[in-house]
Amino acid sequence: MARKLKVWVDHHSCVGNAMCEAIAAKTFRLNGDRQSEVVDPTANTEAEILEAAENCPVSAIFVEDAETGERLFP
Amino acid sequence: MPTAIQDDLFTPDVIANPYAYYGRLRDEDPVHWNRGYELWVITRHDDLVWLTRHHELFSSAVFKNDPRPAYPPIDESDLGLYDYVRNYQGDQFIQHDRPEHLEMRRVMHSYFTPKSMEAWRPFVREAVKDLLDEAEKKGSMDVMRDLATPLPVLVIAEMMGVPKAERPYIRQLAEKLLYIGRGEYDRMKPLTEGMRGMIEYVSPLVDKRKVDPGDDFISVLARGEKQGVFTRHQVLVNTSLLLLAGHETTINLLCNGTLAFTRHPDQWELLKEDPAGRAKQATEECLRYDSPVISIQRIATEDVEMRGKVLRKDDRVRWFISSANRDPEAFPNPETFDIFRHPNQHVAFGSGTHHCLGATLARVEGQEVFKALAERFPNLRAETEELEYQPSITFRSLKALPVTWH
Q: How would you classify the pairing of strands A61-65 and A36-38?
């Protein structure tokens, strides 16, 4: 069973590049300000979510293990 | 009664100090119709962020979608050359909209992640050291010629696997490509020479990488052709684009930032107190205060209302980074160069789906240069206050920046 993730986007940094949405479309969606929001951190695989975080050009995506608090990205 | 706003964007005054002219527009008429060039001039920070994040309303396929002739006007006998320019520019990935833009960008995107660019920092640091060793021996330098130009050319050439001996030739071609943002009546000739030269130069490199790929960046693009995302012409044009974009804008960051420090000794003192700790924030302020790119254009895809004015479908829309980054609504004391500025949500790299692909690389190069200058040349100062800029509305490019440190 996949571990539970805590995923969030820093809106001071997010520039709405939308690469996260392209890579993990079920997890990230642009809001009315065209910034990324996490809609469901269980909807994509951990690998897809980490790929989305790594491809954020301004490193605005943070990923942690929801149970242990271990930082998975960055 | 206020004087009317003149619409020539290439006068010596506007080129020397774009901040006064576009600042006035930002205050008095932030969505301004420039009659001379038939284009909208957008100058406020929030408008610029909104516009760049609504890519479906503002097409980046400027050369393909703009039905009007070149501006400023060109010689009639050069219209054939202008067609060549449109065709060349039109194949750049940045001149595409979704869905094609996303598909093309994805081919290259993973090469440019913050993490993979960070891995280039030791290479950049070593290159800066070598260039400053040379400068130290001479006792003075032209920051443009001796540091700001060779460093990013070296880095991007290394990424592309361009042999050392051929780098000056790349720079020669790049200088011709810069005519794209300029206003000279006869600019099509040097511009197309640069474009044809680039295509000829990169063609055999792409052929080679297609059969024998490596981990260099041209191999990444060649793979895009194999995957059917790019045509051969697109691979050639985008290789040239990245060779140019990979260094031209960084040159301006390094020169304009160094100039800002020589003009603000108090900020230079602050950087010198802790170069390694403060270079990151200082680089962000350099990007905001005297941005490498002045403006970028889009084409409206439908009628759009902004601040009570209607931008019609197919209208040219030009957004000005230089004025948005000095917008008092977005930055307290915007005319002050303040390396501790926080938050600093500048738009030097644009925003939205077209946010600069090479932003992290530019940041790494800026941080390493400002840090090294502060550590090695504490008495750095400009040799002259009389500086000249290239006559461009796209790039904020100094012609030279002589400095000394004795």
A: unpaired
